[in-house]
Write a structure and sequence with these properties.
Elements: H1 2-8, H2 18-24, H3 29-39, H4 42-49, H5 56-66, E1 85-87, E2 90-92, E3 96-98, H6 112-122, E4 126-128, H7 136-142, E5 147-151, H8 157-169, E6 174-178, H9 188-193, H10 203-210, H11 213-221, H12 241-251, H13 258-266, E7 272-277, H14 280-288, E8 293-297, H15 314-321, E9 326-330, H16 336-344, E10 349-352, H17 354-386, H18 402-406
Parallel strand pairs: 3-10, 4-5, 5-6, 6-7, 7-8, 8-9, 9-10
Antiparallel strand pairs: 1-2
Length: about 400
Amino acid sequence: MIKTLKSVVSFAPIETDLVARRLARAACIEDLRKIARRRLPGGVFDYIDGAAEDEVTYAGNASAFSQIRLEPRVLRDVSQIDISTTVLGKKYPSAVFLAPTGFTRIADPEGEVAVARAAAKRGVVYSLSTMATRSIEEVAAAGQGPKWFQVYVWKNRDLVRRMIERAESAGYEALLVTVDTAVLGRRERDVRRGFALPPKLGLGTLIDGGLHPGWSWDFIRSDPISFANIVNDPTREGSSAVALSSYVGMQFDPALSWADIEWIRSITKLPVLLKGVGSVEDVRQAAREGIPAVVVGNHGGRQLDGAPPALSLVANSVQAVGDDMEILVDGGVRRGRDVVAARALGARAVLVGRPYLYGLGAAGERGVLWVIDHLHEGIDRTLALLGLTNFDAVDQSVLYDRLASQKA
């Protein structure tokens, strides 16, 4: 009997690495989200995870992908698969790009530096936010991977110019101008929590921190969090994080227009892309203005609640501009299958933000690597099941119900 048991029972080796044990419990990005939720204070998690008002658009971003049906093909040689793609004339290892996210050190003390290192190890594009908590130069030094710089066109145009010049000097490859923040959306999870940037210490904050000692200990031992790209700006008064937060809040410019985009293009040699384009007519206008690529989406549902799901804009945008412009999409991607679906509708690449923040909150840099690898493996597996060996070969022919998918 003992011999029989030995033939069917084996014991896994004991994993002494706490981070590895944590990541081993995750089978998908939703699992990683749950781990991050347990590890982070409630206000911090809700800042990362939350969206505007009733979060209808946030939910719609993910559900749009669930409506897409792909047609599997069999008896094809899929022993060698290439998931690389080309965007703006440059080849990248995959169509997974990391979106800009503000105040990233709230999830992990290393913040943007950890994300940049993970991205560089896999060769994927990382977009650094204007509202980053690590500087343009720190992130450039973190790894040799491709980097874009996300630009908010603030009222202080001299500051914007200086940041663009710094990004260009540091080797960033493109500018990603966010255009959907004329005013900020009402993010009601933050309102309920009384959450602000930087976090204000009150009784609720102290209790929440005490319930999450790992995060609190890391936070206490780390340098103060500030908006690193403007902390040394000579035109700004005050140097504390609180003063910086107030300053940033006053800088968003509701007067932003197409003339400002043309001004940015006039002061840089870098390609200028638009992020947060939420209507096909604005995609057409961008093409008429000579913009080489736009990212269609809705700021992860954090601006106008009730805006269309990001994926629903892709097919009509591609149809509207043809080969005159490349379309990327941001919002709702949680699996490699989603990346393939976006490509089938015509997107050149996808941007992911919350998924890697879940990874960062759950396991730091290794969590970000887990997310990238999970998406890459999902792309590879989906292509194999579709009978394809090349990501750029994906087109509408893989859609099971082509007409319904285009209207998703």
